[in-house]
Amino acid sequence: MKVYVVGDRGPEHNTIKGIYATYERALENWNELRGSLLADAKSFLKKE
Q1: CA dist 25 to 5, 12, 21, 22, 37, Å?
Q2: pLDDT (tens digit per residue) in 27-44
């Protein structure tokens, strides 16, 4: 059985956001996570 793990990693953290049985569901959730990570990065860069 295959499972698909969605998360993010960085120099000081590794985070699992979800584990999915289908690639389509994992991709859908990855795109949501990617959007929120990009929004966080943009707001962080504006502050500096």
Answers
A1: 11, 27, 8, 5, 18
A2: 999 999 999 989 988 988
Range of the domain at 16: 4-47
* Strand ranges (E), 1-42: 4-9, 14-20
Round to whole Å and give the CA distance between 18 and 24: 13
How many separate domains does the chain show?
A: 1
Looking at residue 43, what is its pLDDT?
87
Note the pTM of the prediction, 2 decimals.
Answer: 0.71
